[in-house]
Design brief:
Radius of gyration: 23 Å
Number of strands: 11
Structural class: alpha/beta
Strand content: 25-35%
Shape: globular
Distance between the termini: 81 Å
Helix content: 25-40%
CATH class of the largest domain: Alpha Beta
Oligomer: single chain
Largest sheet: 7 strands, mixed
CATH topology of the largest domain: D-Maltodextrin-Binding Protein, domain 2
Order of helices and strands: HHEEEHEHEEEEHEHEHEH
Number of domains: 2
Number of helices: 8
Length: 251
C-alpha cells in the first residue's frame, strides 16, 4: 500500500498535537498576580517589592500548583479595575466590589476573613445597620468597595457625605479633627495606623466580617482550569499544615 503525503495530512497532525497540549496550557502561561497596599496582608516594602500575609499565601499556592506568575503592585482602585478588564489575572480579596464582581471567578473555599469596623469619637452613636449612616459624614479609603457597601454610601438618596483618602493614618486624623462622623476601614490596617496615634474617646463597632477568596479574571486564558489548580494546591498545603485559614476575631 502506498501513502501519499498531502497538506491535509500535515494539518491533521498539527490539530492533533494542539489538543494534546491544551491541558498543559495553564502551566505555560505567566499569570499576572496583583498586590496593593493593605498591611499586614499586602505590604509595599521600602525597595518597592511586595510582601505580606496574602502575598505569601498567593505565591506559595501558585508555586505549589506549578504555575508561572509575576507579581505587580497597584493602587487598590486600579487593581480592582484591572481584574474586571483582565489586565490582572489573580488577587486575594472579597466578593462584591462593583469594579470586578461580575467579571471574575471566586474560589470555592475562603482562605481568610476581614473584619470591617466603623469608628467614631465622643457622643456620636455607633451604627447598627447601614441605614444608621444616612445623613452623616463618613471617611473611606480610596478605591475600597467594602463588599459593595460603597455603592450604598455613594447613593445620593441616602444623604451621606463621603470623603475618601489614600492614607489610613490620614483618615483617623480627619476623624480626630472632627471632619467627619465616622471612619470606615478594616481591622488590621486600622490597628496599624492607630498604633502611632492617640485619639481620645475613640470607639468602634464590628460592622461585618467579609470572607477572602482567590479571585481570577474571567478573561484569563483557561480561567476555570487555572482556578481548579489553585484550589487543589491550596487545599493540599492546608492538609499538610503548611497553610491555614486566617481568622480575624475581635481581639
Amino acid at each position: 500500500m502506498v501513502f501519499f503525503y498531502t497538506p491535509y495530512y500535515s494539518i491533521r497532525i498539527l490539530i492533533f498535537s494542539f489538543f494534546l497540549l491544551v491541558p498543559n496550557l495553564s502551566s505555560a502561561l505567566q499569570l499576572k498576580a496583583g498586590s496593593t497596599d493593605f498591611p499586614p496582608f499586602y505590604v509595599i516594602n521600602n525597595d518597592g517589592s511586595a510582601s505580606g500575609i496574602y502575598v505569601d499565601i498567593m505565591e506559595r499556592t501558585l508555586e505549589h500548583a506549578g504555575l508561572n506568575y509575576r507579581l505587580d503592585i497597584y493602587p487598590t482602585k486600579r487593581l480592582y479595575r484591572n481584574l474586571g478588564v483582565g489586565e490582572t489575572d489573580l488577587f486575594l480579596g472579597i466578593k462584591g466590589s462593583p469594579e470586578y464582581d461580575n467579571d471574575v471567578l471566586y474560589s470555592k473555599m475562603a482562605i481568610s476573613q476581614l473584619q470591617m469596623r466603623i469608628y467614631a469619637i465622643g457622643n456620636t452613636p455607633l451604627p447598627s445597620i447601614k441605614e444608621d449612616l444616612n445623613g452623616h459624614s463618613v471617611i473611606t479609603m480610596r478605591g475600597y468597595g467594602y463588599g459593595g457597601l460603597i455603592t450604598y454610601l455613594e447613593n445620593p438618596n441616602n444623604s451621606i457625605e463621603v470623603t475618601s483618602t489614600s492614607e489610613h493614618r490620614s483618615s483617623f486624623l480627619m476623624l480626630k479633627n472632627k471632619r467627619a462622623d465616622y471612619v470606615i476601614n478594616y481591622k488590621q490596617p486600622s490597628k496599624t495606623a492607630l498604633a502611632a496615634l492617640r485619639i481620645d474617646d475613640l470607639k468602634y463597632t464590628s460592622f461585618y466580617d467579609a470572607k477572602v477568596y482567590f479571585i481570577m479574571s474571567k478573561k484569563t486564558i483557561n480561567a476555570q482550569q487555572v482556578m481548579k489548580k489553585l484550589e487543589h494546591a491550596y487545599l493540599d498545603l492546608v492538609n499538610k499544615n503548611e497553610l491555614e485559614y486566617i481568622n480575624n476575631d475581635d481581639a
